[in-house]
Structure formats: C-alpha cells, structure tokens
Design goal:
heterodimer, A: mainly alpha, 2 strands, disordered C terminus, B: three-stranded antiparallel beta sheet, 15% strand
Chain lengths: 231, 110
C-alpha cells in the first residue's frame, strides 16, 4: 500500500509552518491524492498510471509550498501584529491619556520648568505613571511573543501617536494662519515646537521607554524563546 | 487569457456556492464543482488548497478534521456566517457581469 503522506512529506519538506500545522497539511494533501488515485483506478487506469496522474495535479511542488505558506501565514502575521503591537500599544495610549485627563480634572497643576518662551510643563504624577504604563505595554507585547522591537514600540506607542498628531498639527496650523492672512514668525513656531516636543514627546517618551526596557530586561529569556516561533 | 483576479473571483464563488449545501472535504469539493459545472471548472490540488487556506484565514470557511463512515480522517470545510455574507454580493456581482457580457455579445452579433 502506498504511503501518500510520506510522498507528500518528501515533496513539501520545506513547508515553513509549525510542526502540527505542517503535519495537518501533509495529511490533508495526502488524503486528496489518495482519493484521486482511487478514483483513477476505478476508471480503469493501471496502478502506475493512476499514481502519475494523481501526482500530475502538482507540476511545481516548490511553488505549491510557497503558496500554502503565504496563504496560511497571512492571517497569522496579522493576528500576531495585533496581539504583539496594536493591543498593547492602544492600551498604553488609552491608559496614559485617561490618567492625564483625570489629573487635569482633579485640578493637579503642572510643574513649570525653565522660564520665558522655553518653559516646560510637567505633570510629575503623570510622568511617574508612564513608567508603569510603558512597562505594561512591553509586558503584554512580550507575553504575546513580541520581539524586543515590538515590545518597546508598544511601550512608547502613546508618544508615537502624539508625534504623528504633532507633525500633522503644525503644518496645518501654519497653512491656516497663512490663509487667514496672519503673519507667522518662524522663530515662534520653532520655539513652540521645541517646547511642546520636549514637554509632551521627549520626556514622556523617555519615561515610557524606561518602563518598557525594565520589563523587557526582566522578561528577556522568556520573550526571546517565544519570538522564535514563526507562523 | 483570463486575468488572475477574475479566476480567483470565479474560484471563490464556486467554493462558497458549493459549500452552501453543506460541509465537504477538499477532494469532494473539487469533484462537486467539476460535476456541477459539467467540467467547465476544474480544480487541481495545487490550485485548490492554497485557495482554501486563504479563504479559511479570511474566515469565510472553517476546516475541521472529521472521520468518515469508512474510518478515513478528512478535513471538512463549512461555510461560516462571514462566508455566507460574502457569497450574496459576490453572486450578484457575477450575475451582473454575465448579463453585461451577454448584452455586449448580442449587440456585437446584431
């Protein structure tokens, strides 16, 4: 009796899927070939001709292997990205925003550092909380098997979102000012950019990153072993 | 020469339509499509499984191992609710396309 599974296994030996999934694919395709072969025998073909005709369904096994991996991994990659980056990232973003809004609602006054046009506003309790928020983002990402890059990106996600808003906001503001005929002094804009950038992006980003790095260092043996599984 | 997008669309419509009648494993699915289209549509193993896996990832179909009456284990595919939702507009689009092509052929023959 012909071992169809072995036959498929030999031809699809480089199937880049995890072991269980690879075995399933081998078994499924072997089943298909076996049924094709049996149907061809019933039609009156000789055994050898039926085997050849069944196998003739695949002219390029290498190509089939590639197509299967692409078809199977598309969803996996998306799922992984969601679990390792987007969910932890959005959670850190929501937590940091809600905490800042709560502090402002409760009447906490920001600490002013520096003077004149370059005076930075810092919410000390918020900055402190960002260490934990960043740590949480990195922990969730690492637990989902995220790489170091994904874990750190998840931890600094709130600042990345703010940076994107900043980069959009200033050019739009400049255009509006120009359209309504207001003269905008570039040095004022540059100073504002620097001030807001340090106060709302650089320092909070550093706090988030420190939290993320601490957790990543603590979990690094675990995260590196999980990160090797490729779907 | 039929474009790959049209081919893919036809193949997906065929699979979803046949699975509407009930779950089937890959070989039986290909056989049904061939039978029901009088041999106009044929799926080889190489064309069928990458498509089934892709459709599974898109959650239009769901595969599960089942043991048949003769003791054979086969992966059976069934239509999901997302697949059912995908099928109706797909059927409409293809029906419209065929009607348009028919009209076009009639005009060019007239």
């Amino acid at each position: 009796m012909r071992d169809w599974q072995e036959l498929v296994r030999q031809r699809l030996s480089g199937l880049g899927l995890d072991a269980a999934e690879r075995d399933e694919v081998h078994a499924e395709l072997a089943g298909h070939l076996e049924e094709s072969y049996e149907a061809l025998l019933k039609e009156g073909m000789t055994e050898q001709a039926a085997v050849s005709a069944a196998l003739f369904q695949v002219t390029n096994w290498q190509d089939l292997q590639q197509k299967i991996v692409i078809a199977k991994s598309r969803g996996h990659l998306m799922k992984k990205r969601i679990q390792q980056l987007w969910i932890p990232g959005f959670l850190t973003f929501i937590l940091s925003t809600v905490f800042l809004m709560t502090l402002q609602k409760l009447g906490f006054r920001p600490r002013i550092v520096g003077g004149g046009p370059i005076a930075f506003l810092f919410y000390a309790p918020w900055l402190g909380s960002l260490l934990f928020v960043g740590a949480l983002g990195a922990y969730l990402s690492s637990r989902a098997g995220g790489s170091r890059g994904a874990a750190l990106l998840a931890s600094v996600f709130p600042v990345l979102a703010l940076t994107a808003a900043f980069l959009l906001m200033f050019p739009i503001d400049l255009i509006i000012e120009r359209v309504i005929g207001n003269h905008v002094d570039f040095s004022i804009v540059a100073t504002a950019l620097l001030r807001e950038g340090i106060g709302w992006l650089l320092v909070p980003g550093a706090a988030l990153l420190v939290g993320g790095l601490l957790v990543h260092l603590l979990l690094s043996p675990q995260s590196s072993s999980q990160g090797t599984v490729i779907g | 020469m039929i474009g790959s997008e049209i081919k893919r669309g036809t193949a997906e419509l065929a699979v979803l339509s046949v699975l509407q009648d009930g779950p089937l494993h890959g070989y039986e699915l290909a056989r049904r499509i061939e039978q029901q289209t009088n041999g106009a549509l044929r799926f080889t193993l190489a064309a069928l499984y990458p498509m089934l896996y892709r459709m599974e990832q898109q959650r239009w179909i769901r595969g599960a191992w089942e043991t048949s009456a003769n003791g054979r284990r086969r992966r059976c595919y069934r239509l999901t609710s997302a697949g059912r939702k995908k099928l109706s507009p797909l059927q409409r689009e293809w029906a419209e396309l065929f009607r348009a092509l028919q009209r076009l052929t009639k005009v060019s023959h007239a």
